[in-house]
Amino acid sequence: QVQLVESGGGLVSAGGSLRLSCAASGLTFSRIFMGWFRQAPGTEREFVGAVSWSSGSTYLADSVKGRFTISREYAKNTVYLQMNSLKSEDTAVYYCAASRQFLFTAQRMNVPDYDYWGQGTQVTVSS
Asked: What count of other Cβ atoms lies within 10 Å of the Cβ of residue 105?
């Protein structure tokens, strides 16, 4: 049984930082991608970033480049989203996701191309 469990969300002032974690279990890790998405009220779920589990290559949405980073830790089967210089528009529920297989460039940003999802963690940035 696949499980993705996010943690680390909370309330932070604009300009502050948070680190989200996603602990994964039950996955066959060799070729998968792990992604982060977010969804604000009344909006569609949007891509934040992704990491190739095998290579460690990372991909970030333009809106967060230079502020957010993604990393993975083999020993803990965990993916992190380090968020710095947070803005009020970063307020959303953040979701961790995993694919069952390799994703090509165009697929990495697509919600339907991910097979497993966590329950989400709320990030609120106050201005």
From this structure: 7
Give CA–CA dist 71/80, Å, rounded: 5
Question: Which residues, 6+ apart, have CB-to-CB distance to 91 below 8 Å?
Answer: 40, 123, 124, 125
Is residue 29's pLDDT more than 70? no
List of residues 6+ apart from 57 with CB closer than 8 A: 51
Question: Which of helix, strand or coil describes residue 113?
Answer: helix
Coil, helix or strand at residue 127:
coil
For strand 46-52 and strand 58-60, is the pairing parallel, antiparallel, or unpaired? Answer: antiparallel
Query: Which DSSP category does 48 fall into?
Result: E
What would the pLDDT profile of 73-101 be if each residue is shown by its tens digit? Answer: 988 999 999 999 999 999 999 999 999 88
* Cα–Cα distance measured from residue 66 to residue 39, given in angstroms and rounded to the nearest whole number: 20
Q: Please give the pLDDT value at position 27.
A: 85
Q: Give SS3 for 111.
A: helix
